Amino acid sequence: MHDHTFGQERKKTAERRTFIVIIITALTMTVEVAAGIAFGSMALLADGLHMGSHASALAVSAFAYLYTRRHARDARFNFGTGKVNSLAAFASAVMLVLFALVMASKSVERFIFPVAIEFNQAIFVAVLGLVVNGVCLVILGGHGQAGDKASHHDHPPAEDHSSGHDQQGHPHSFAHHQYKDHSLWAAYIHVLADTLTSLTAIFALAAGKYLGQNWLDPFMGVVGAALVVVWSWRLLHSSARVLLDMQAPQEVSDGIRKAIESEGDNRISDLHVWSVGPGIYAAEIAVVSSEPLEAEGYYSLLPKNIGVVHVTVETRRCTSATHEIP
């Protein structure tokens, strides 16, 4: 009897990075809110509350990591808890869209009802936010982006079975560029959105202070909101594919098909490959052959670095060497 944890019970470096970023964000929020109240600064108070909203969103990613580890061996999850990662990311992306809509509405409101801007104070807040967010981006290491690659200690050896057999090998390099830790990606986008807000704010405020172009402040707010929506849509789309059990990236399916059909007259008549966690997949394969292999034979044909951790193989014998796929 084997488990279906697929390494989800292990604490990942991404989890540690996320917690560090939450702590930094929460501390900055506390300082800004306290300073805003002490000095009567609405700019500091507003930015502090903004930091707080993103700390709450980042907490969703942190919760996903904890829940995934603690329930990794829960038999109620057929393929482990890997999809909790994508579920949390989907929720986080929805929150990002809501933040962007609020940002856009406030910017439009400023177009219609302009307010006096305390440039020096506002620029200070924006620079402070930029520094903090820059530090957080460095901590996350850019690993939240779509092209993130899994580190070798983040996943166990691949386990392929239909009768309890194991295939040893690390599921990494083949599907590296397809790997997505959705929780880390969500955290990265939240911090990146804050960084973008700080950058556009500094540019707009400097233009307003030195060139008198106050309209740039709300305009940059709209631009920033639009970019956040685009990033959020990508995260929504990617995480939804996992939650809906859509087919894995074509390269993974093609790799399985090529490996099996390269042996004898084996032909795949049906193939389903789907994600069960960050960078790991399950597969159901139906093979037609005049001389079907034993299950172990098909396991040995699969690339050991393809990221497939759970395989079920069905074979059908056909007397013709040039059989047609039903």
Describe this structure in words.
- The protein is elongated and about 85 Å long.
- The chain is mainly alpha-helical and 326 residues long.
- It contains 8 helices and 3 strands.
- It has a 3-stranded mixed sheet.
- The longest helix is centred in the first third of the chain and has 31 residues, at 82-112.
- It has helices spanning 13-39, 42-70, 82-112, 119-140, 182-211, 216-243, 250-261, 295-301; strands spanning 267-277, 280-289, 308-317.
Describe the secondary structure blueprint for this structure.
Layout: H1 13-39, H2 42-70, H3 82-112, H4 119-140, H5 182-211, H6 216-243, H7 250-261, E1 267-277, E2 280-289, H8 295-301, E3 308-317
Parallel strand pairs: 2-3
Antiparallel strand pairs: 1-2
Helix pairs in contact: 1-2, 1-4, 2-3, 2-5, 3-5, 3-6, 4-5, 5-6
Key terms for this structure?
2 domains, 326 residues, mainly alpha, elongated, 3 strands
Distance between the termini: 34 Å
Helix content: 55-70%
Strand line-up across the major sheet: 1-2-3
Low-confidence sequence ranges: 143-179
The third-level CATH topology of the largest domain is Alpha-lytic protease prodomain-like
Q: Beta-sheet strand percentage?
A: 5-15%
- The CATH architecture of the largest domain comes to Up-down Bundle
The shape is elongated
